[in-house]
Amino acid sequence: MELFEYSAYELSKMLQRKKTSSEELVRSYLKRIELINPRVNAYITATPALALDTAQSVDNKRIRGEELHPLAGIPVAVKDNISTAGIKTTCASRILEHYIPPYDATVVKALNRAGMPVLGKTNLDEFAMGSSTENSAFFPTRNPWDLEKVPGGSSGGSAAAVASGMAPLALGSDTGGSIRQPAALCGVTGLRPTYGRVSRYGLVAFASSLDQVGTLALSARDTALLLNLVAGPDPHDSTSLPDRDRDYIDNLTAGVENLRVGVIKQNVADSFDREVTAAVLKAASLLESNGARVEEVSLPMIDYGLSAYYLIAPSEASSNLGRYDGVRYGYFAPGKDISEMFCRTRGEGFGPEVKRRIMIGTYALSAGYYDAYYLQAMKVRTMIRREYEEVFKRYDILIGAASPTPAFKLGEKTSDPLQMYLSDVCNITDSLAGVPSLAIPGGFHSSGLPMGLQLTAAPQSERLLLQVACFFEQHPETKPRRPELDFIESPPEEGGM
Amino acid sequence: MGIDFNREVDRVARLARLSLDPDEKKHMADQLSDILETARRIQELDTSGIEPTSHVINIPVAMREDEVKPSLPLSKVLQNAPRRENDYVKVPRVTPPASNEEGK
């Protein structure tokens, strides 16, 4: 078995038993990146020298017998909207193409403190706005299960990197599904934690009341390991939860007996791919036959989630992205006066989807429309939260599809923004409610592509989500699998990275 | 009644400080009309008496002592500025020229 085939947990054990070194590990992943990235395009920036430096420093500490974090020496990939001091952080946008942050995000500080070598920065839809990674200003990422398909988005680079063995772990961000939908399309485990569980300091802001940093990994155990490292309060983020959870690992194997499970009617809809719906129902009956109490539950507010989200998120974005004006950082276009400079800088620096969302948000916040759009959407958000509060009095876990379909073709939805938005229909209301939500492998479609299940629980129930995920991993049909990369033998096409 | 964004696009682009070329405007107006038509579904709901949610967590405002701590050095803060002079960022003139300056 090659090193990249092991889980982060197994690699951690191997490092502790000195069966391998972090340097050997990093070199193995770098080789893998060199081989696969030209076809998959998961990374915008690779940082091999830095990764090797960190690895060697951890190896030396281990030789000296210093106490190390369980993830010390395990490589990791970081989505390119998370600030890394001295390393370009582009948000896959022309406007930040050459931007080098002067400071680290709190989560990146945690990776550095633990001694995790950062392999590079992964591709995304520009400013995390999109569901296919095709909105990257630089190049689309491809799905390692089928290069003609999208990896999902916006954390498509992180999901594709983990799925194809170009990183054992990755950080992503999720505003309205940007971790869970790509995790589903790439067959990996993607966690959006409770809002406030992980610091947002240094995550480039898209919609602040919805943005959350989370993880992409191969298993529940690997997810728990990384979450243990990045979760917790942060004085630099006033919206981070003040308390700390218990360890996310110790209850992983507790099983599902007596759990009250609700199958979300709206997330096994008739309009979804039939095989996806069947996979959810099969997973639910698996829970039932192992002692869980399973019922169908209707959350009618889900039907309004997409509408509310596409007013709230763009409104916040239109305000957050006001900072890109060509003055302090980023792309700059000259103008005869400051107004023309602003307009040209932004008109030339932002891509089409970002402009669309700024326009929607500006409209929804503008005089005469505010009450009917933005204020009404915030009230609907309250109704969504109440519905979740009620449903979690009766159920411990909700289950549904993590995406209505498996991965779709590149280009299939790029000319129809509304169709693209609908790819996140399963994920969006969890975001609006601020609850933790986890996408896990849910078996395979007849096309050979992975399908994703989504598990949702009450705020701060990440431990429960991971426990249920761990249960599914023990079963042959929902066990995580790696894609066979048939394309490795053939020479790469012209172009790309 | 559908929404026709064509009448709004110039006003909104001006508010958002976005220069859009004519093709972009036409294309965007059509797409935004569709998107807003879908977004408008929330208007069917009766929300009277419901408080808006601007943030999902109810934690007290984070307070801390007002201490002086070191911040980033100016050189680092300014390293990404496209145009700078000495320790300043540089921008085109912000205020319009005074009337007695005109025509000189």
Total beta strand runs of chain A: 11
- Span between termini of chain A: 28 Å
Q: How would a crystallographer describe the biggest sheet of chain A? A: 11 strands, mixed
Shape of chain B: flat
Oligomer: heterodimer
Q: Give helix and strand order of chain A, one letter per element, not per position.
A: HHEHEHEHEHEEHEHEHHHHEHHEEH
Largest interface, counted with CB-CB under 8 A? A-B, 74 and 52 residues
Which secondary-structure class do the elements of chain B indicate?
Answer: mainly alpha
Class by SSE composition of chain A: alpha/beta
Tell me the CATH architecture of the domain at 3-257 and 438-445 and 461-478 in chain A: Alpha-Beta Complex
Weakly predicted, low-confidence segments of chain B: none
Q: How large a portion of the residues of chain B is in β-strands, by DSSP E?
A: under 5%
How does this structure look, described?
The complex is a heterodimer of chains A (497) and B (104). Chain A has 497 residues and is an alpha/beta fold. Chain A has a domain at 3-257 and 438-445 and 461-478: Amidase signature (AS) domain (Amidase signature (AS) enzymes), CATH 3.90.1300. Helix content of chain A is 38%, strand content 12%. Chain A contains 15 helices and eleven strands. Chain A has helices spanning 8-16, 22-40, 48-63, 106-114, 156-163, 180-186, 220-230, 274-289, 302-320, 338-349, 352-365, 371-394, 417-422, 428-433, 462-473; strands spanning 43-46, 76-79, 118-122, 169-174, 189-192, 212-217, 260-264, 293-297, 397-401, 437-444, 450-456. In chain A, strands 1-3-2-4-6-5-10-11-9-7-8 form an eleven-stranded mixed sheet, sandwiched between helices. In chain A, α9 (302-320) crosses α12 (371-394). The longest helix of chain A has 24 residues, at 371-394. The two termini of chain A are 28 Å apart. In chain A, 61% of the residues are buried. Chain B is mainly alpha-helical and 104 residues long. Chain B has a domain at 5-43: Histone, subunit A (Orthogonal Bundle). Chain B is 29% helix and 4% strand. Chain B contains three helices and two strands; from the N terminus they run αααββ. A two-stranded antiparallel sheet of chain B has the order 1-2. The longest helix of chain B is centred in the first third of the chain and has 18 residues, at 22-39. The radius of gyration of chain B is 24 Å and the shape is flat. The chains are: A alpha/beta (497), B mainly alpha (104).
